[in-house]
């Protein structure tokens, strides 16, 4: 069994559907148009002949003696009327619609009764034209008609004169046929012009609509091939396709952003592995070397040398422990496994305690560490004391590590926009502008910072930033090379 292939192009399918609908609508229109033309001509014929039956009825008179119309008068009148207009047929109807007399031949009559409802409706004058009545010769083909009542000498209704208008012969012989042909011709020409116009406009609109869809399909295919920068452009924003294009562009942008984040994460992972490997390798190598020396040459080493080697091993062990602890702490912060437990406390007192803890380290570095005076009646902070202490320790330890001897590190607390702001300033060498955006990245250390004499794991500032973010703040830094650096963050203020 053969079958036609279905068109795959949406534009072609829509065009074929549109043409089919247009042809179907045109066919229905032609059918209605033909019937409307017939109704129009029937109305015109009936309206022009409304008085025909009344004028003929004037010739007919009812004999007062017999109360009947003489058959000879009926035949003569019907014959005269038929001579004038051969396309009419005349009938006398009883009050019940039964045929009393007819101008047609007896063998032509197919119905002996005429429906009286249309007759009464036409006589009442309240119904719109045309009104179709029974044609006794062709009962299945109602005709427009004219009717007039006939009254006897006493004024009583005697019968009706019923005249059918038109007929099969009239369709080709009357001038109305020419009028009908002309009317249909004009309407068909109008339909043809309108149909061609609608067809052209419809196909153009379908082409414009599918053009936007084709652009969207082309963009989706670009995305399918791996071009995640593809965006749907040139599509109207005031329709469903525009909304679809906007949704696709948003999805594409999110996909591209997610891929960029994955690439960045992968790069950070590689960098993290490299940095961890580097930072773990050095103390492990030192521990391994000094341990082998103590084990293999312990009989050659003096007690002082053995003590020095063991202290070096312990120092590197502490460094490894600190690095692993900070890695574990940072991973918990980034995975949001650390949940702050805020409580009201005095921030200046916390600053004072941390400064006292680090005072010995500051004296060892010949650096002045001090907490600046705070405003009177400073409100309490509302934060996690332990986490905030960790932030202060990291910031102050970082400042002490990079402030040269004779310099100073200051801590200042002050209210700011409904929060408590804390500043840590130092008089160190400062931070170069290219390094500022990366200062809080994991393991990021400049060439100057990477000098072994500085120590540090490169995780302290990253941990501090994460803790501050958990408290709804932001850790920022400003610095001028040669004039030191200033770290600033804020914590919520306690509201009773």
Automatic annotation (TrEMBL):
One of its GO terms (molecular function) is ATP binding. The chain crosses the membrane at residues 12-32, 186-209. It is found in: Membrane. It catalyses: ATP + protein L-histidine = ADP + protein N-phospho-L-histidine. Signal peptide: none annotated. Residues 207-260 form the HAMP domain. Residues 275-495 form the Histidine kinase domain. It comes from the Bacteria. Its EC number is 2.7.13.3. It is an enzyme of class 2 (transferase). The keyword Membrane applies. PANTHER family: HISTIDINE KINASE 1, TWO-COMPONENT HISTIDINE KINASE. This is histidine kinase. It comes from Hymenobacter algoricola. The lineage of its organism: Bacteria, Pseudomonadati, Bacteroidota, Cytophagia, Cytophagales.
């Amino acid at each position: 069994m053969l079958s036609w292939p279905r068109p795959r192009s949406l534009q072609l399918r829509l065009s074929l559907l549109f043409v089919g609908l247009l042809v179907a609508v045109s066919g229905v229109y032609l059918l209605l148009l033909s019937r409307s033309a017939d109704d129009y001509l029937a109305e015109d014929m009936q309206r022009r002949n409304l008085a025909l039956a009344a004028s003929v009825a004037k010739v007919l008179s009812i004999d007062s003696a017999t109360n009947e119309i003489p058959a000879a008068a009926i035949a003569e009148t019907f014959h005269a009327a038929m001579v004038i207009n051969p396309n009419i047929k005349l009938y006398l109807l009883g009050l019940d619609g039964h045929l009393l007399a007819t101008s047609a031949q007896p063998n032509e009559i197919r119905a002996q009764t005429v429906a009286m409802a249309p007759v009464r409706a036409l006589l009442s004058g309240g119904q719109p034209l045309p009104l179709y009545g029974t044609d006794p010769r062709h009962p299945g083909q109602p005709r427009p008609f004219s009717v007039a009542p006939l009254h006897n000498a006493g004024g009583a209704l005697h019968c009706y004169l019923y005249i059918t208008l038109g007929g099969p012969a009239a369709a080709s012989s009357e001038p109305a046929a020419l009028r009908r042909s002309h009317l249909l011709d004009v309407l068909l020409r109008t339909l043809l012009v309108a149909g061609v116009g609608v067809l052209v406009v419809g196909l153009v609109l379908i082409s414009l609509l599918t053009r936007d869809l084709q652009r969207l399909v082309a963009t989706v295919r670009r995305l399918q091939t791996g071009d995640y920068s593809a965006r749907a452009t040139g599509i109207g924003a005031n329709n469903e396709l525009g909304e679809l294009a906007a949704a696709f562009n948003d999805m594409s942008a999110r996909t591209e952003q997610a891929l960029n984040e994955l690439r960045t994460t992968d790069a950070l992972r590689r960098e993290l592995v490299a940095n961890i490997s580097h930072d773990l390798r050095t103390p492990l190598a030192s521990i391994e070397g000094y341990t082998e020396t103590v084990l293999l040459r312990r009989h050659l080493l003096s007690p002082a040398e053995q003590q020095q080697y063991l202290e070096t091993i312990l120092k590197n062990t502490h460094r490894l422990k600190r690095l692993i602890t900070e890695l574990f702490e940072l991973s918990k912060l980034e995975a949001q496994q650390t949940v702050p437990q805020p409580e009201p406390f005095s921030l200046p007192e916390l600053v004072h305690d941390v400064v006292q803890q680090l005072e010995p380290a500051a004296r060892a570095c010949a650096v002045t560490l001090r907490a600046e005076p705070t405003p009177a009646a400073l409100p309490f902070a509302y934060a996690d004391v332990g986490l905030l202490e960790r932030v202060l320790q990291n910031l102050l330890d970082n400042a002490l590590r990079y402030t040269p001897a004779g310099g100073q590190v200051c801590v200042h607390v002050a209210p700011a926009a409904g929060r408590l702001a804390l500043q840590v300033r130092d008089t160190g060498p400062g931070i170069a502008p290219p390094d500022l955006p990366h200062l809080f990245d994991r393991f990021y250390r400049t060439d100057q910072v990477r000098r072994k004499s500085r120590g540090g794991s490169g995780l302290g500032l990253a941990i501090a930033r994460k803790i501050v973010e958990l408290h709804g703040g932001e850790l920022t830094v400003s610095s001028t090379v040669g004039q030191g650096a200033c770290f600033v963050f804020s914590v919520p203020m306690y509201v009773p």
